[in-house]
Design brief:
Layout: E1 6-10, H1 15-26, E2 30-35, H2 38-50, E3 55-59, H3 65-74, E4 82-85, H4 100-128, E5 131-136, H5 149-168, E6 174-181, H6 187-200, H7 204-212, H8 224-235, E7 246-249
Parallel strand pairs: 1-2, 1-4, 2-3, 4-5, 5-6, 6-7
Helix pairs in contact: 1-8, 3-4, 4-5, 6-7
Length: 256
């Protein structure tokens, strides 16, 4: 195994975040599961610990600048080497009907949050001359779909953010990249299927086949393990000069 790292995964209690956390923990890394819900984070950490993993749970609202800024002190015994910006939410609605507070919330969670977290952990990464910042973007970082204006805007924004930070960290062994998967079968996507069925007046089965999988030549949901393995590669020495990049796992979607 490569060098053991301290990895913080936001939104790590479920879905993609838990999948990444579990695989990295199994590979021998110390994983900090950060989630808005303390009990959910602790439950996830208990599952990993039962499998022999080293982990810790921490509650944090990624939109709370003061709380995020305190994280390095909270985690002083396990300074973070790798930050996985995964926390995400979704709201599906026409812009005409999109609640303003909900639009702002999506931007705060999925764009401002990663910036605050990167700002908090970057000084340690720079000081030790090693750091990996891995954003979990989306196919919607590079294409758009109707009824997702806030989500698409936030995920597109991650790419520009990563490119800028890559330029600012060219003087040290710190990289920042964005993984952009097509649909991953998670609780968040399950909720989307129901919402998209209403907005598009389709059955849930048709939403899966005609909206989610239709653009993909491979016609398959992305597995969390694919993202976890991509994260492992980005953490490796082989990827030390891959920075500011967009890694698209889309089953061929964007070839069209």
């Amino acid at each position: 195994m490569s060098t053991s790292r301290n990895v913080l995964v936001t939104g790590g209690a479920s879905g993609i975040g838990f999948g990444i956390a579990a695989q990295l923990a199994a590979a021998g890394h110390f994983v900090v599961i950060a989630d808005l819900n303390q009990s959910a984070a602790e439950d996830a950490c208990t599952k990993l610990a039962q499998a022999g993993a080293k982990c810790r749970a921490v509650a944090v609202d990624v939109c709370d600048a003061d709380a995020v800024a305190q994280l390095p002190k909270t985690l002083i015994e396990t300074p973070i080497d790798v930050l996985v910006n995964n926390a995400g939410i979704q709201h599906v609605a026409r812009l005409d009907d999109f609640p303003a507070h909900k639009w702002q919330q999506l931007i705060q969670v999925m764009l401002v949050g990663p910036a605050l977290l990167t700002q908090a952990f970057l000084p340690h990464m720079r000081e030790q001359n090693f750091g990996r910042i891995i954003n979990v973007g989306s196919i919607h970082s590079v294409v758009a779909s109707p009824f997702k204006s806030a989500y698409v805007a936030a995920k597109h924004g991650l790419l520009g953010f990563a490119k800028t930070v890559a330029l600012e960290t060219g003087d040290c062994d710190v990289t920042i990249n964005t993984m952009c998967p097509a649909y991953v079968k998670t609780p968040l996507v399950e909720q989307q299927i129901k919402a998209q069925a209403v907005e598009n007046n389709l059955s849930e089965e048709d939403v899966v086949n005609k909206i989610m999988l239709e653009p993909m030549p491979k016609k398959a949901f992305i597995e969390p393990s694919e993202l976890a393995s991509t994260a492992e590669f980005l953490m490796s020495d082989a990827a030390k000069n891959i920075t500011g990049q967009t890694l698209i796992l889309d089953g061929g979607w964007t070839c069209r």
